[in-house]
Design a protein that fits this description.
The protein is an alpha/beta fold and 206 residues long. The chain contains 7 helices and 14 strands.
């Protein structure tokens, strides 16, 4: 499995394209900004986008998502608890004086499950609220795409819509920390880390 990351937008956020070494299908995870980078990678590698799967619906993760949804006519997966953020995308942008596209259209509600099949991919979906109410993480083998839940030496902020610090800590300790220590965490911002490293070194989780 190849997990290609792009740091995009004014809040440098990590967008991911997941694809296999053989086969043309790919998943787009949190495609939000600087979409030309994604288009170029897709074209250069002869990939065929199969779906958009979002960890949550904060501005930096969803600002121009509808443009790529419309370009490739893609299904869009998001947890229903994120709908208020989705519907208020324009207002989120206005708070920072930023332009946005229209919100993408949810075609498939995203729920916690041991095995979600999307196109030619199957992966585990983990509901990890606290940063936002419908924050979801995606486990592909030993790789976790974690959104804004757990970072290298840090955790997601909890001062936004329905953020809850205690719930975030609980989500990390009772769900993410149940994964093997060698699990690589690909976060929504900053460098990758591992579950084992954050268990022993993260100052918020001692």
């Amino acid at each position: 499995m190849i997990i290609k990351s792009f740091s995009v937008g004014p809040f440098p956020m990590n967008t991911y394209i997941v694809h296999k070494e053989k086969g043309s299908g790919c998943l787009l995870i949190d495609p939000s900004d600087d979409l030309h980078l994604l288009y170029s990678y897709i074209d250069e590698n002869n990939l065929k986008p199969e779906a958009i799967v979002n960890t949550h619906a904060h501005l930096d993760h969803i600002r121009f998502t509808s443009l790529i949804q419309n370009k490739y006519d893609l299904p869009f997966y998001l947890n229903d608890e994120e709908i208020p953020l989705l519907e208020n995308l324009k207002q989120q942008g206005a708070m920072f004086g930023m332009e946005t596209a229209e919100p993408p259209k949810i075609t498939n509600p995203l729920e916690e499950t041991e095995n979600l099949v999307v196109g030619s991919f199957n992966f585990k979906v983990i509901h990890a609220p606290g940063h936002s109410p419908g924050s979801m993480c995606f486990l592909f083998g030993e790789d976790l795409i974690g959104g804004d839940v757990l970072f290298f030496d840090s955790i997601g902020r909890t001062d936004l819509y329905k953020g809850d610090y205690d719930l975030l800590i609980k989500s990390i300790k009772t769900k993410l920390f149940m994964l093997p220590g060698e699990t690589v965490v690909h976060p929504g911002h900053g460098p990758s880390t591992s579950i084992g490293r954050e268990k022993t070194s993260n100052p918020f989780l001692g």
